[in-house]
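Q: Here's a chain of 301 amino acids. Please give me its 3D structure as tokens.
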Amino acid sequence: MQNNCLSFKIDQKTKDKIQEFYKDFTSEINEDYVIFKAKYEDTTIKIYKNKKEELKATFTGKNAYNEASIFNSNFEVSEGKEHKHSTWLDILDQIGSDEVGVGDLFGPTVVVAVFTSSKDIEYLDKLGIKDSKKLTDNKIVELAPLLIKRLTYSSLTMTNQKLNTELEKGQKKLALEAKMHNQAHLNVLDRIQKYVPIYIDQFLSAQTYISYLHDVTIAPNIYFKCHGESSYPSVAAASIIARYIFLQKIAQLNKKYFTNFPLGAGKKVDEFLVEFMKTHELPEVKDLVKAHFKNFKDLNN
């Protein structure tokens, strides 16, 4: 039998019934907006309350259907037997974010946050959505417009010129990325107007991430996961859209300079940079690259 994920809105009376029914099976709560959590056999039960005092119950597990049926028969259902993507750790409503371009000498840094609901999972699985790093660029160009059309998302782009300026001011690179992720999360939360967990493809520790956001409003309910794009559909979708936007920016550069800028930061990039610098002034080149990269520094020492 497959895992099921079921959710429905509840009133105060139903909330009290659920809490009383599972009072001997309560679990520790470490999530924002969760006011009750219990683990009964193979099913996890949670009750959420948002800022509007609205209540929602979720039942997740192999026996979720039977447990939820005790209190309601009108579900939003995402059943494992209908969604065969075995790697997703969560297929309920969520926001996920990822960044692209941080390892490329040329091209901007792009951060995208995406909201996916349980109703999107079957569609995403049929498309074969997964980590953008496992897809060809041609496949990215094919899939991303479909995701952009269907999903609520926010994208933020930092040019290399802006990045270089901020780093010269003493800003930390990871702090800039953290703020981009956080702002993208806030943008999506503002658009969907509901509380959901937020998953980040982990690029630094949670403690460091929070410390970098000490002077801004921090999006709540955040979880970090290494290789999050393989675990959460929202992060996978975010990685694809971010890669697509990055490729569009590279295409614009190619058109402007009548060349093909190589991606990454390997030997081919070194060779291209040497030739490019023969025909372009240093200030212009510096605005096109991530100036803290060794590739660029080695040519200017």
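Q: Can you summarize the key feature?
A: The chain has three domains: 4-79, 94-253, 260-298.
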